[in-house]
């Protein structure tokens, strides 16, 4: 049996080797043949397609103060002393004290006249013989306020005092030594909050200025919702003219706002709520953007973005939170408050 199987195996092996050689030869010959392909493009007008007008636009997101402290012209950071949320003591940064513990005491309480922003700043002047410049508080804005010679700045603030108190509001250099603009403000005594408006005309230029509110006589005064805006905003709508001019040069056909991660938040408790960004700016509660880690008072809100879209001639692309953040989400049965456009009546 063994002697008969050997020739058969030999013949089988030989046939396999012949087939393998033929196959390799064919494959090799195929690679030697040059393959030529041609591509025809018909660019005639009859087949052309118009590029959509809305192809190019602006994707805006509130990152690194692109809005608050950026295109939005508000110069005061944390204008309502609410950066710590609704609880007291609140985080008043970047507000700081002018004076020392023996001359002035500053704290927060929940006595504001604004229903949705209850935190107010209480300032007590303790000195009988106060320094020449007075004692009080100052705000450096976002990396310093860019104050320019000859320009007008509109100050709005709310105050109350049990007894009449004279204060000074001024724009100074970062060390307080150079006074660029100054005005006296009188807060009449009483239990009611009053709104104070004051125009400050700069007599000099300093790109790292600050706003000061000071007093020289003993007394107690409450302050809240302090705003400082340049008078020459774009079309009077609150946006920085020079930055909007750059946006106009882009000729955007849409504006997407106010962002992606900014809208979601790291946690839903800190997510952007568009309804909280409309209405009187004093009543907007603001929120802590926990993705980019800074507070925004939402003075630049839904309405302002719609206004900017109109000013740019761009279609508004509105981004809203749909009940999801980076770390949590709501049940779909509870999503209505997030996505309903109109509140229930």
Automatic annotation (TrEMBL):
Q: Which InterPro entries match?
A: ASD1_cat, Galactose-bd-like_sf, GH, Glycosyl_Hydrolase_51
Signal sequence coordinates: 1-28
Name the Pfam families for this protein.
Answer: ASD1_dom
> GO molecular function terms here?
alpha-L-arabinofuranosidase activity
UniProt name for this protein: Alpha-L-arabinofuranosidase 1 catalytic domain-containing protein
Per the record's keyword annotation, is Ligase included, yes or no? no
The UniProt keyword set, sorted, is:
Signal
Domain Alpha-L-arabinofuranosidase 1 catalytic, chain residue ranges per copy: 247-340
């Amino acid at each position: 049996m063994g002697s008969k199987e050997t020739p058969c195996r030999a013949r089988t092996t030989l046939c396999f080797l012949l087939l393998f050689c033929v196959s390799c030869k064919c494959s090799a010959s195929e690679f030697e043949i040059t393959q030529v392909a041609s591509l025809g493009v018909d660019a005639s007008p009859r087949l052309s397609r118009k590029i959509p007008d809305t192809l190019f636009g602006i994707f805006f997101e509130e990152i690194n103060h692109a809005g608050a402290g950026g295109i939005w012209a508000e110069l005061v950071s944390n204008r309502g002393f609410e950066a710590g949320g609704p609880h007291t003591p609140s985080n008043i940064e970047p507000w700081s004290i002018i004076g020392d513990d023996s001359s002035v005491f500053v704290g927060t309480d929940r006595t504001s006249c604004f229903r949705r922003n209850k935190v107010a700043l209480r300032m007590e002047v303790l000195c009988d013989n106060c320094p020449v410049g007075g004692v009080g508080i100052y705000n450096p804005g976002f990396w310093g306020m860019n104050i320019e010679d000859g320009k007008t700045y509109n100050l709005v603030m709310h105050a109350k005092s049990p007894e009449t108190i004279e204060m000074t509001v001024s724009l100074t250099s970062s060390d307080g030594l150079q006074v660029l603009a100054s005005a006296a403000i009188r807060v009449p005594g009483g239990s009611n909050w009053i709104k104070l408006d004051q125009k400050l005309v700069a007599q000099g230029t300093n790109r790292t200025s600050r706003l000061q509110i000071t007093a020289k006589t003993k007394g107690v005064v409450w302050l809240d919702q302090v705003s400082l805006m340049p008078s020459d905003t774009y079309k009077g709508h609150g946006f920085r003219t020079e930055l909007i001019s750059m946006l106009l040069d882009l000729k955007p056909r849409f504006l997407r706002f106010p962002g992606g991660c900014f809208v979601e938040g790291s946690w839903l408790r800190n997510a952007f709520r568009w309804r909280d960004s409309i209405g009187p700016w004093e009543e907007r509660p603001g929120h802590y953007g926990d993705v980019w880690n800074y507070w925004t008072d939402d003075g630049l809100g839904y309405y302002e973005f719609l206004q900017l879209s109109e000013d740019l001639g761009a279609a508004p692309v509105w981004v809203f939170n749909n009940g999801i953040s980076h770390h949590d989400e709501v049940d779909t049965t509870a999503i209505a408050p997030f996505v309903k456009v109109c509140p229930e009546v």
